[in-house]
Design a protein that fits this description.
This protein is of the alpha+beta class. It folds into 2 domains: 25-53, no CATH class; 62-137, Archaeosine Trna-guanine Transglycosylase, Chain: A, domain 4, CATH 2.30.130. It is built from 5 helices and 7 strands; from the N terminus they run H-E-E-H-H-E-H-E-E-E-E-H.
């Protein structure tokens, strides 16, 4: 938009600039659906929770990978997980507990890039249970 204003100014033979620029939507998030921090501060905990979006909303455009419990444990510990057949790309990663973070698939491995705060504790208990079950059977 800024360049467009400059181009119009050049075409008219005068300078031009934007006095203000306001983004109304990005990544599927609309300004009209937002609220101020002051508004949030005035809400009850339940009302506040109802207004907040889950963290994976921000990465919904990325392709999804679901991990098995043993894979989730490795992922939560920052280790790469073998996954053949995936194109090299950035992915949003889920375990049985939900959104676990962001990973990059490179040459048949899924490598953690960013983990959610709860990813390691829930994945640890999931992974341990799965490992014990596989030993018992």
């Amino acid at each position: 938009m800024r360049v467009l204003a400059e181009d119009i100014g050049l075409a008219l033979g005068c300078g031009a600039h934007l006095a203000a620029l306001r983004r109304l939507e990005t990544g599927g998030l609309r300004l009209s659906a937002s609220c101020t921090l002051e508004t949030l501060a005035g809400l009850s905990d339940d009302e506040c929770d109802a207004r907040l979006l889950p963290p994976d909303t921000l990465v919904a455009a990325l392709p999804r990978i679901d991990l098995e419990p043993v894979e989730a444990l490795r992922f939560a510990q920052g280790q790469a997980v073998a996954r053949t057949g995936l194109p090299d790309a950035t992915y949003r990663v889920y375990t049985a507990e939900g959104f676990a973070g962001i990973a990059v698939a490179i040459e048949g491995t899924v490598r953690p890039r960013r983990l959610t705060a709860g990813a390691s504790s829930s994945a640890a208990s999931e992974g341990k249970r799965a490992a014990i079950e596989s030993l018992e059977s």
